[in-house]
Amino acid sequence: MLRVAVMVSGGGTNLQAIIDAVESGRITNTEIVAVISNNKGAYALERAKKAGIRDIVVSPKDYTERSEFNKALVEVVDSLKVDLIVLAGCLVVIPPEMIDKYENRIINIHPSLIPAFCGTGFYGLKVHEEALKRGVKVVGATVHFVDKGTDTGPILLQKAVAVQDGDTPKELQQRVMEQAEWILLPKAIDLIANGKVAVVDGKTVIRK
Ligand code: GRF
Fold first, then answer.
1. Mutate which of 13, 91, 114 for ligand 1 pocket (most atoms within 8 A of beta carbon)
2. Residues ≥6 apart with Cβ < 8 Å to 203
3. What is the pLDDT of residue 14?
C-alpha cells in the first residue's frame, strides 16, 4: 500500500480529484495519510476533513527563520512515514534537504506542457495569461518529479488541451484542470503505487 502525503496551498481541486479517484478505485493500492498546507485558510483542508483525512498546517508565517520552517516541515513529513509526496496546487518552496531525502518520491502538477510556460513566477493563472499572450494553440499539463530546480525534474505524464478562440485565462485554466490536471495526477499516483514507474538517467520509464 503506497502511503501518500498531499501538499496543498489553495482550493484543492487537484486534491479532490485524487480523493475521488481513490474512492472510485481509479487509484489502487494507495492510502492518502495526510494533507499538509502552508496556508491555514486553504479550502483544500476542508476537502481533506470532509474525506476523513488528517489535515496539517505547517506555515512559514509561524517561524522567524525559513530554516526553522524547513526543519519543521521535514520533521512532519518524516513522521508520516510516506512513500510519496504529491504537490497539488502547492505554492511553498520545498526545502532542498527534503528533495534530497525524498529523491524521485515527490511529484508536482504544473498547468503547462513543460518546458513551455514554467519556471520561476509561472504558477496558477499567470501560466494561462502568458499562453494566451503568446497565442499558442495547444496548452496542457505536466506531472513531473521534483528536483531542486523549478519545474525541471523528470517528466512523468503530459496531456494536451486545445486553446479555443476567445478563451479568457480563467476559462483556459478551468479547461486545463478538467481535461488534464485532474486526469494526470491520479493516473501518475496509480502508476507509482503499482510499481510501473522508474527514473533512469533523469528520464522516466513507464512500464505498461
Ligand atoms: C491549479 O492551476 C494547478 O494547476 C496549480 O495550482 C492551481 C490550483 O490548484 N498547480 P488546486 O485547485 O488548489 O488543486
1. 13
2. 154, 155
3. 98
Q: Coil, helix or strand for 159?
A: strand
Q: 201 pLDDT exceeds 90?
A: yes
CB of 60 closer than 6 angstroms to any ligand 1 atom? no
Q: Is the pLDDT of residue 208 over 90?
A: no
Q: Say which DSSP state 95 is in.
A: P
For ligand 1, whether the C-beta of 11 sits within 6 Å is: yes
Q: Is residue 35 predicted with pLDDT exceeding 90?
A: yes
Identify the CA nearest to 142 among candidates 180, 179, 172, 171.
Answer: 180
Gap between the Cα atoms of 19 and 89, Å rounded = 14
pTM above 0.85, yes or no: yes
Do 20 and 33 meet the contact criterion of CB atoms below 8 Å apart?
Answer: no
3-state secondary structure of 150: coil
Nearest atom, ligand 1, residue 11 CA: 13
Neighbours of 188 (CB within 10 A): 25
